[in-house]
Specification:
- The structure is a single chain.
- By secondary structure, the protein is an alpha+beta fold.
- It is built from 3 helices and 5 strands; from the N terminus they run E-H-E-E-E-E-H-H.
- Strands 1, 2, 3, 4 and 5 form a 5-stranded antiparallel beta sheet that branches.
- The longest helix has 30 residues.
- The two termini are about 30 Å apart.
Length: about 130
């Protein structure tokens, strides 16, 4: 696995994600990682080690790792997954979300409906892990 080790986020557990991400049709993430957070290297005097999840995105045209590679603390990953699953299942989550762009909501609902089987399979796999 050629996940970068020289960036601020230091991978500990990683997934070669290219083939899984390409199933979504427009994915550009090559790896997912759980590791030491970027903000550990910010020179904080607290020396508190923190961990994060990251999607490593590759920019083919410039042959470099994208500055848009996302790094999120674990609780945000879980909250984002909760929000997404609630939206897919047309439910409210504990996050107290609301529609901020009513004009785009029907397009989002249509997209979800067209891809529901794809997402439902992933939700079912997550549910299995949670229930074990």
């Amino acid at each position: 696995m050629n996940i970068p080790q020289n960036l601020s986020h230091k991978p500990i557990i990683a997934v070669d994600y290219k083939s899984e991400d390409s199933k979504a049709g427009s994915g550009d993430a090559l790896f997912l990682s759980i590791g030491e957070a970027t903000w550990n290297n910010s020179g904080s005097s607290e020396n508190k080690l923190d961990y994060s999840a990251k999607a490593f995105r590759w920019v083919e045209t410039s042959k470099r790792w994208s500055p848009q590679s996302e790094e999120l603390p674990f609780w945000r990953v879980i909250d984002l997954a909760t929000l997404l699953i609630a939206v897919i299942n047309d439910k409210k989550s504990y996050l107290n979300e609301g529609i901020v762009n009513q004009g785009k909501n029907s397009g989002l609902r249509q997209y979800i409906e067209e891809n529901k089987d794809f997402y439902q399979d992933k939700i079912n796999k997550l549910k299995e892990i949670i229930n074990e």
